[in-house]
Amino acid sequence: MNSFDGIIEFVAVAESQGFSSAAKQLGCSTSHISRQISKLEKRLGVTLFARSTRQVSLTDAAQVYYQRCRELVNGLEQANEGLKTQQINLSGTLRVSAAGAFAEEHVAAALMAFSSSYPELTIEMDFNSRFVNFIEDGIDFAIRYGELKDSGLMARKLVDRPMAAAASYDYLSRYGQPTHPTQLKQHSCIVTNNEHWVFEHNNNTITTRVHGRWKSNNSHAAISACEQGLGIAYMPKSSLSKGLESGSLIPVLEDFWGRGSSSWIVYQNQRFLPLRARLAIDYLVKYFSDWD
């Protein structure tokens, strides 16, 4: 049985490319990782890692060995999860990074519903749009909106979020209603993260640079400014839906509303995800599968 000592640590270091990051992933000390790797290398009679000040990488001799060990670890994980799913009782803390009104209103509500089935599970949501280091920050997954950069992270789409433009009755009664996106240059616009608004009409894209009296990267503040008559807002329709339904906001330029972007679940690696994170992700994807 000693032949299996250090295998889990070896795979973790190989995939995270660092002893300290592997220790954080496995919830143990860096010294424990180092001891286990040293014992494994001594037992095998081969050097497994090339160490530098910046990262740790597999030696040529260890490449094939890693693939075989990865298969062993996958089998062990599947066996463990097979037992867990027979009688799931999730515990521990699920840590989620999120940003924007959609996450605050809809994703949070979905995770509350998810947690109601698991009374021993704690959920921490950090509403911050900053870049997330999943290992160092201890984040299981993040909710992000827009085009994703090719960062090597895994991603699953939650929903497509088409755009909508709106303004208050008071603003439109004073300044008139635009009939074409180019007319927005003569209007005060509520600017969030982008001054270049993209509209669509007859399969053509119309990009208009706007300006206005109110700029904010907080969607709630932007919507409130729009309802107070400070200008025209152009945001995902889901963010404006309450105002449009209540009548506090009037739709503008409906024939030109763009397709917008999507909201995504982003995470580091399926192999690193604890069961609570995997089940939460699956739940969210199913929850929003028919969301309008």
From TrEMBL:
<dbReference type="InterPro" id="IPR036390">
    <property type="entry name" value="WH_DNA-bd_sf"/>
</dbReference>
<dbReference type="InterPro" id="IPR005119">
    <property type="entry name" value="LysR_subst-bd"/>
</dbReference>
<dbReference type="Pfam" id="PF00126">
    <property type="entry name" value="HTH_1"/>
</dbReference>
<dbReference type="InterPro" id="IPR036388">
    <property type="entry name" value="WH-like_DNA-bd_sf"/>
</dbReference>
<keyword id="KW-0238">DNA-binding</keyword>
<dbReference type="Pfam" id="PF03466">
    <property type="entry name" value="LysR_substrate"/>
</dbReference>
<feature type="domain" description="HTH lysR-type">
    <location>
        <begin position="10"/>
        <end position="59"/>
    </location>
</feature>
<comment type="similarity">
    <text>Belongs to the LysR transcriptional regulatory family.</text>
</comment>
<keyword id="KW-0805">Transcription regulation</keyword>
<protein>
    <submittedName>
        <fullName>LysR family transcriptional regulator</fullName>
    </submittedName>
</protein>
<dbReference type="InterPro" id="IPR058163">
    <property type="entry name" value="LysR-type_TF_proteobact-type"/>
</dbReference>
<keyword id="KW-0804">Transcription</keyword>
<dbReference type="InterPro" id="IPR000847">
    <property type="entry name" value="LysR_HTH_N"/>
</dbReference>
